[in-house]
Amino acid sequence: xxxxxxxxxxxxxxxxxxxxxxxxxxxxxxxxxxxxxxxxxxxxxxxxxxxxxxxxxxxxxxxxxxxxxxxxxxxxxxxxxxxxxxxxxxxxxxxxxxxxxxxxxxxxxxxxxxxxxxxxxxxxxxxxxxxxxxxxxxxxxxxxx
Length: 145
Hints:
This protein has 145 residues and is mainly beta. The protein has one helix at 66-72; strands at 5-8, 19-20, 28-31, 36-38, 43-53, 58-63, 74-76, 81-83, 90-97, 103-105, 110-118.
């Protein structure tokens, strides 16, 4: 387990801290710090009312909540979103309404999950060729035939 520092912003007063909904949950539920109506097709960066300090060597991924997606067509864009360890601004969640009806985002409503994860860094090395594989350069859907 890692420790992530959190600073509650003034508009986040009274909201719960990110928390696991069950003992074996992978994501920490986070809530909205504002109220708004998302019309079908509309998107908005929803404020959460807090900022975090992620330890170096980690990221925090922002993921949608399956219940909101299934019941209302509400999901996160840029999923999973990555919060880098050097970011210190407010955490916001880009919600989009893919449903048929307007959706009311209520203050304190759980809108997304945060999943801390270790980061593996890579160096790219230019080469004149790549090794052969059975798939080769087959693109999207090429392994399903």
